[in-house]
Every structure is written in C-alpha cells, then in structure tokens.
Amino acid sequence: MKNIAVDLANYDHPLSGLFDEPRTLPEWEPYILSEAVVRSFEETGFISGIKILTNEQVNVLNSELATLQVATPEQRKLFYHYESNESEDPDKVLFHAIGAWRATPGFHDLIWSPAYRMAAYQLLGAPLRLFHDQLFCKPAKHGGVVAWHQDYSYWTFTKPMHHLTCWIGLDDASKENGCLYYVPGSHKWGLLPITGLAGDMEAVRDILTAEQLTAFEHKIANELPKGYASFHHPLMMHGSYANVSERPRRAVVLNAMAAGTLGNTTNYERIDALHNFPEMKQDQVLNSNFFPLLFDGGKELEAAMNAVPRVDPLKLYTAQ
Ligand SMILES: O=C(O)CCC(=O)C(=O)O
Description:
The chain has 320 residues and is α+β, with helices and mostly antiparallel strands. The protein has a single domain, classed as Sandwich (Jelly Rolls). It is 20% helix and 21% strand. The chain is built from 9 helices and 14 strands. The strands form 3 sheets. Strands 1, 2, 3, 4, 7, 10, 12 and 14 form an 8-stranded antiparallel β-sheet that branches. The protein starts with 24 loop residues before the first helix and ends with a helix. The site of 2-oxoglutaric acid has 10 residues, from strand 7, strand 11 and strand 12.
C-alpha cells in the first residue's frame, strides 16, 4: 500500500474541510475584490495583499510541503516537474515542483479556496480552470534566483493567452529572503522571447528597449506576510533575487486559465519539458480531470455575479 500514491486529480471537489465552501452571495461577499482593485490590476498588471490563508492553513500546507520535499518515487510520478538539490538537511532543500495539488489534500484543496477562486474569476473576467500549481522554496542563505521573465513565454503550448498567476507566501516574504518583484505596466509590452529562469537574474535586459529598461527602475518588491497573495497577468515581467536571510522563503503558486483554453502542442519547440504533463491535444479544450473547472460564475449566483466587478478579457488578454 505504501508504494501507491493516490492521484488526487481524480477528485474535482475539496476533500479536507480546510477551506470554507460558500454557496450564496452573502457567503461569497467577503471574498469579492472591489472595483478599484480590479481596475488597478488592469492598469499595472498585478495586485497584492490579498489574504488567502489563515496561519493554521499555512501550517498545514508547510507540513505537507515538508513531506513533498522528500517525496517517494511513486509520489514523484504525480508531479509534472520535480527539481530539488536533494539536501539531506530539511532546512536546506532548494525546491521547485509542479503538481503538488495531485499529491496531498491541503494543496489539492487550496485550488478550491474561495478567496482564490473569486479573485481569479474577477481578474480573468471568465470561468476558469486550474492550469497547474507550483512550489518555490528557497532555504535560508541560499541563491535561488528566479530570473526576470513573463509566465506566458513558457506556456505557449496552450492558447489563447488567457491565464493568471497567484503567488501565495508560505513564509513572510521580504527583500532579504528573496520576495518576488514586479515591473508595473510591463503586461503591456507584448510577448518577449525566453531568456532563462536560473542563473543570471538580469539576462532579460539584453532584449529590452531603452524605455523598458527605464521601467525597471520602478520595480516593486512584493513584500507580503505569509498567507497573503499577489496576482499577476501572464505578460507581467517578474522575478526574485537570492535569499540572503537566515530564514526560508517558501511559496505556492496557482496558475489558472480561462475555461476554454486549448492545447497548442504540435509545433511547441520545448516539447521535451512537457513529458510529465497531462495530455494536451492540439486545438482541443483542456478539460480533462487534470484541468478541473474551478469557478464558472456560480450557477446559483448567476444574476448577482453580473454585479461583481471583472476585467474585460478582450482588453486585457488579447495583445500577444
Ligand atoms: O517564487 C518565486 O520566486 C518565483 C515565482 C514565479 O516566477 C511566479 O509566480 O510566476
């Protein structure tokens, strides 16, 4: 039994009771982003300071994360990507993995958390599916640079671009321990070529215009208490510097996409990177159990949802 890892992708609903499950509009109301916050997202390409997790929920996820950092070979098969320095010291594990939602109940249920789902619906302006999740763990005093990049440059095996990233801190994140940085307005720069994620933080500078380089002078450090999140547009320029502090910087990232997103894999030049991903057929809606529908505007809420502020997807997600 020990060697069998249960694939939680078989469950298209929460399993653990870790999160509320609102049904009526009054129950959803505390999670609705204001008009001003939605407009700010349209303008700058990101918003920050959204509470997703209580401290107790953070603790549950951090306990599960510790087990995933030493996952069994069977558990590792559930991941689309699993990269670790394999340090024997749990405090020194440098770790990036995609697919934790399939492996443990807390990470599985996080994708159903109401604060996440409502904000994602408003910021995509459309019903949404899970694309995938990610874990980014930088131990104390460890490099762990994530170079400046745009998420969609790595996701062109799906189309059209109608995706959203939510970054959730599992530790307080500060400049010292390697918080994320954003370049406000860079979501209007169009799609730029890939310049790499590891090693040279500044590699992207070689392909930027003088105007874009100037915009970097206004970069924002996304410092956040644990349990809080930022959301960013798929073309937002972002990255994180090394953790030079005495404490870890762990985070879980949820990547969503509009419910009608299609596979675009036939001519994808980095196809090798996808060999552990779920099947994605060219021009077919990604609607298997690996891409669960997370929020469709709530059938039971229907009329009320029209009053909830949302972005206009045609304005925000068409320039590529
Ligand atoms: O957590 C990090 O340092 C990087 C996260 C990131 O690149 C993302 O959320 O898209």
